[in-house]
Amino acid sequence: DAKTTQPPSMDCAEGRAANLPCNHSTISGNEYVYWYRQIHSQGPQYIIHGLKNNETNEMASLIITEDRKSSTLILPHATLRDTAVYYCIVRVGGGSNYKLTFGKGTLLTVNP
Amino acid sequence: GAVVSQHPSWVICKSGTSVKIECRSLDFQATTMFWYRQFPKQSLMLMATSNEGSKATYEQGVEKDKFLINHASLTLSTLTVTSAHPEDSSFYICSARRATGTQGGELFFGEGSRLTVL
Lengths: 112, 118
Prior knowledge:
The complex is a heterodimer. Chain A is mostly beta strands. Chain A has strands at residues 9-13, 18-23, 33-38, 45-50, 55-56, 61-64, 70-75, 84-90, 106-111.
């Protein structure tokens, strides 16, 4: 299983972009990078995922380096409600038969 | 997005009793559901994978006789914590894999069930 490394915590000012890094140096060519977040005492919420191209949706952008050994999740305009633990996960298993193994994640605190 | 519901959202029970937690996919069919456990200030730990109509696959170190999982239909999986003890107090979270459709293969998480064993 490809492991991920994230900083344990980060701070961001409200309204500014939050850039959350993730290292996954042992990722295989067919493994996806997923990002979830968990607000306190709630279930994880899907944010975005990608394979090798950069991705963007209404919540965030995902930038994956060319060698795929690291990625960055970008929240363009962080709000107080974005305070949560953010998990970077490498998808284990092929096709639709996979499971997600969570690491320790990054606690993002958005300050007013 | 797809909705996964857990019930109860919180439960308090006496030591030695059994507790059942339900996980339902409300608007899609889920051939596979996963059960996680999360202790305070820790990450989610995968306990088992539940496939509809077959026995669950447990992760290493998880007691299958302690945590009974049943996945009798494409929209319902249950986790029963048998003979619960205080150390079983935790936040239990399920996720469901959507079988088909535009979001086929993606995982959706429930809101979690907090178990407190006295």
